[in-house]
Amino acid sequence: MAVNKTNSKKRGALGKGLGALLKDSPQKDKSTEAEEDKMPVAGIFEISLSDVQVNPYQPRTHFDKTALEELAESIRVQGIIQPITVRRLADNEYQLISGERRFQASKLAGLEMIPAYIRTANDQQMLEMALIENIQRENLNALEIAHSYQRLLAECDLKQEQLGDRVGKNRTTVNNYLRLLKLPPDIQAGIRDQKISMGHARALINIEDVDKQLAIFKKTIEEELSVRKVEALVKELNDGAPQKPTKESESLDPVKKYEINKLQQKLASHFGTKVSLKSDKKDKGEIKIPFHSTSDLNRILEILELI
User: Fold this and answer.
1) Domain boundary among 130, 152, 187
2) Residue 214 in 3-state DSSP?
3) Which residues contact 201 (CB under 8 A, 6 or more apart)?
4) Mean pLDDT (whole number) for 234-242
């Protein structure tokens, strides 16, 4: 791609993209007050990497090192296919709006100059453009998307309908992501570290009790439960809450009840007959293994290695 030096004439704008989403604001800030007549405010130019500051509004908190190295190698071979976008703060001083992966990979590739689309933007526009660009173009995890949505609502003064229009999602989808931020920190960390998926998290949201949420979260990781199994477990937990408890299971934690039922099924499978396993809230209980004849009893005793 042929680009101009910073003292060359302005090249045509990049066409549609973020500029179509967010028009330049007439407000003046540091970037727009700094000798605008010396630098065009829209166009592609080649600027020094050392003159570019990272974006303080970057929503992505982690960049995969392997993927970054692969991109750097591609840049060494092919060059920069898509320019980064920056705003001008002063002479030879720019701030990233979008393209931090390309920026970081270019430094790894040993480049000194990089093609950039220069435009004006105030701080709020910087945040909005960075968030929207990353949501649309980067492989953010569900929690990063949720935080990005929350920042757009809170810091850019957008309503959910407006946010949905900006990111191309309906209100329900936006709300599902925002609900993730109500989960306990441990579960949010699990989403961030990809220990559980968005589907798992959406099921866990439907549990009101935090301790029960965490119990099923840990169980999900330990047993590598599918989303469908977690949904079924949550449904069983919620459906079981309103039922009248028996004397044996009064006030029994639904998660513990699930464990007991699971153990009961294992025992029944092991002995080849229906097994009754009961436990109360004090962890006291009993196991009943019925038999239907003397030979059936002997079979069970053999399994127990008692004869």
Assistant:
1) 130
2) helix
3) 142, 180, 183, 187, 190, 191
4) 72
**Close Cβ partners of 300 (under 8 Å, ≥ 6 residues apart):** 271, 273, 289, 291
Domain that holds residue 31: 4-130
Give me the helix-helix angle, 198-205 and 227-240, nearest 10°: 0
What average pLDDT is seen over the chain? 76
Tokens standing for residue 65: 């090192």
Q: CATH code at 109?
A: 3.90.1530.30
223 assigned to active site: no
CA angle 102–104–109, rounded 5-degree value? 85
Measured distance CA(302)–CA(297) in Å, rounded: 9
Contact 119, 97 (CB under 8 A): yes
Give the tokens for residue 206: 């439907």
Q: DSSP strand E in 7-149: where?
A: 43-48, 52-53, 84-90, 93-98, 113-119
Decide: helix, strand or coil at residue 279: strand
Establish if 280 belongs to a structural domain: yes
Of these residues, 36, 70, 100, 222, which one is catalytic?
A: 100
Number of independent structural domains in the chain: 2
pLDDT of residue 62: 66
Place 1 in a pLDDT band, splitting at 50, 70 and 90.
very low
Element (H, E) at 167: helix 160-167
